[in-house]
Amino acid sequence: MTTTVLITDPPPHLISELRQRRPSWRLHDLSDLSGADTVEGKVWAFIDWICPQMSGLELCRRLRETGPTRRAHLTMVLESGDMESRRRALQAGADDYLLGPLDAERLLERVDGCGDVSAMPARQVYRHGTLAVDCTAHQVRHDGSVIALRPNEFRLLVHFLEHPDQVFSRQALIDSLGKHALGIDERTVDVWIGRLRRSLVAAGASDPLRTVRSLGYVLDSLD
Length: 223
Description:
Blueprint: E1 3-7, H1 12-21, E2 26-29, E3 42-48, H2 56-65, E4 73-78, H3 83-91, E5 96-99, H4 104-114, E6 125-128, E7 131-134, E8 139-142, E9 145-147, H5 151-162, H6 170-176, H7 186-202, E10 209-212, E11 216-219
Parallel strand pairs: 1-2, 1-3, 3-4, 4-5
Antiparallel strand pairs: 6-7, 7-8, 8-9, 10-11
Helix pairs in contact: 5-7, 6-7
């Protein structure tokens, strides 16, 4: 599958290094929305807090509302790692964040570490009540209807289905997504879980997760 990476106002040395290390990737300047019109395949966007044409938060919101990038993995590149900046990034629709400046090593770590669906069991389908999760197709269905999930929420759901009846702390869930080295705050897990629950319920499915106070989250088996 094609990998498309959108970067706001990328320096030439960053593009040069990425092309050397990942020649098959399609790289686009995302200084405004023009670079998002014809994206295809698996799409990742790295959005600066301040962009040439608009704020990074506004660009993030628009990407989340635009057809070709609605399901893209959006990472906000923060100028400050304070809690308020993180909160605003997630509210704008970002999947996660990192503290800038962006460099090739951290970008590769983010894409390779979080976007590899092939790391999941091949041809594996998990079922839980009316839910069917196909890891090969990267697809979730409820009573046959597709539910659109973002990459983090999909991976979390698969993780819970792989380990039913086990309580996972927020840090354990960060580790399960391969993001333990990326400075993700534990409260971000609550945002991911909330998005997952809302997507399932909006599609008519039951919320399969249970919050265990002071410990974390668990998916109870139906047996």
